[in-house]
Amino acid sequence: MGDTDVLVVGAGPVGLTAAAELRRRGVDCRIVDKLAEPQPYAKAVGIQPRTLEIWDAMGLAREALDAAVPMLGQLNVVDGKPGPRIDLDLPADIPYGFAAIPQYTTERLLTAHLAGYGTAVERGTELIDLGQDADGVRAVLRTPEGREDVQARYLIGCDGAHSPVRRAMGIRFDGDAFPEQYMLGDVEVDWDLPAGFGLRVVHHDAEGRVDDVLVCIPLPGRKRYRMSMLVPAELEAVASVGGTNGEVAHGLESGRTPQLRHIQTVLDRLSPTPTTASELRWSSVFRISHRLVDRYREGRVFLAGDAAHIHPPTGAQGMNTGVQDAYNLAWKLALVVGGAAEDGLLDTYQAERHPIGEEVVGRTVRHARAGVESDPDDFTTILLREAQLLVNYRGSSLVDGVAGGGTGPAPGDRAPDCGGLVRDLARYPLRLFDLLRGPHHTLLLHAGPDTPAELLHRCAEAATAAAHGLLDVYVVLAPDARADGVRLPCVQDRDGTFAAAYAARPGEAVIVRPDGYLGARCHPADPEELVAQLRRTFAPA
Q1: Could you give the count of Cα atoms lying within 13 Å of 499 in the half-sphere of its Cβ?
Q2: How far apart are CA 161 and CA 262, in angstroms?
Q3: N or C: which end of the chain has fewer CB within 10 A?
Q4: CA distances from 217 to 78, 188, 223 (A)
Q5: Is residue 283 within 8 Å of 204, Cβ to Cβ?
Q6: Is the pLDDT of residue 240 over 50?
Q7: Is 213:201 a contact under the CB 8 Å cutoff?
Q8: Contact 151, 3 (CB under 8 A)
Q9: Are strands 508-512 and 518-522 parallel, antiparallel or unpaired?
């Protein structure tokens, strides 16, 4: 079938996630990037709780937590006066909080993780031509050794806002650009503002329009922040709003490098307390556009991350949304490459992720123009949405029409975590997420004292066969249930936390997808119904 199963173009966080998840499932994969070395910039720094859940499932949570600093909230100053303080307090059942990690550290962690599967990023390797037919993708690469022709079954373009993959496929990227130009700086300051809090300062002109802004995000280090602000006149470039020569005006620019004095001038003007900036690690001018592709798939070619959607950095949604793109696509692509699913499964990538990209672009543009305070929802809902914990795939063909009913999370919703699960040999309580770290679907059979063991066995056998063996099965015993006669892995819901989190009833079956979303809820558990639900994803065995 060619030189590789999947060629990933672009080795940022999105491409590295896609490659790592493909390799975790045994898919032959190459990942290339035109840069000879990773960029040493703290571009995307905000890490959402949902991304930490994904890294937990991938086996990266420890390394990420070691490298991160917590984001506890945001201090606001409006026209020189203290504004409302925002505390990023999530409900107690959410396992991770908000964090900040420089993008170069995120890429280093993901690159090392990918190397654990025997795959290295092929750097200094640029895509220069691309085509496809019914049998595969034909890519031409410019490598340090010269031209290379590559045949792949599929290709994923994770190559950023200026994506050559997107252009080669003729995929529209409609939208517009903000007229303002900004600058970024990675600096240390000597103020005494509380650690773990970001800072947002805005100033309005006489007509109520924002004419000055300073946003500071804490980074690992001693009073270190990534700061963004409007570009001073001496660095401002004359350019059309939408970019020149058909290019997208988005991201860092070369040729205009802010100096420490430019950042200090803004701090002198806007900082809520006198401070001196030092240790400028890097700086850049950048532009902001908001654009969305009309389709995430063109035949055997897929787009993910900034190649598919760009928007204001409000709420640190961009990189995190791209990671979820890759996480959604990789398990589906692995099933198709391995022959366990048909090609039509890949259409659900567009169906599930395009509406998410559309919502994120629209929301971040609204928040950038009118502030998060303009959002009509209550603060808890806003916070959970910013944490990307409210993303759902209700209405997807993979989950529509499932049996079950009742209350609790619905098919298509994020599978919640819970604690207090115990099992033989483990002398400590487990989390449900401990059972969901495998690369496969998971079947959870909730057993009460009257649930027949034979029914559990028939459900497990039928579902495992329907999933081509790519299924992990656990019996979750109610507090008053016993495992007598059960020949399946069991955990005891000692404190009733699973039943509470899922509103689960004895005798119910829950299918969790590899990306941590509910695929089906079946009550009562029935082998034929489970097979029917798994057939939404898997080809007939």
Answers
A1: 18
A2: 27
A3: N
A4: 17, 11, 10
A5: no
A6: no
A7: yes
A8: yes
A9: antiparallel
CA 525 to CA 398: how far, in whole Å? 18
**CA diameter of the chain:** 78
| Per-residue pLDDT tens over the stretch 11-53 | 999 999 999 999 999 999 999 999 999 988 888 899 999 999 9
Q: First and final CA of the chain: distance in angstroms?
A: 22
Tokens of 411: 């098919």
Tens digits of per-residue pLDDT, 264-291?
Answer: 999 999 999 999 999 999 998 888 889 9
Residue 136 corresponds to which tokens in the numbers above? 């595969």
Using the 8-state DSSP alphabet, how is residue 344 labeled? G
Mean pLDDT score across all residues of the chain: 92
Nearest-angstrom CA–CA distance, 511 and 490: 16
3-state SS, residue 353: helix
Length of the chain: 541
Distance separating alpha carbons of residues 239 and 25, to the nearest angstrom: 46
The SS3 call for residue 492 is strand
Cα(31)–Cα(15) distance, rounded to whole angstroms? 7
Q: Could you say which DSSP state residue 354 is in?
A: H
Contact status, residue 483 vs residue 493, Cβ threshold 8 Å: no
Of the chain, the percentage scoring pLDDT greater than 70 comes to 95
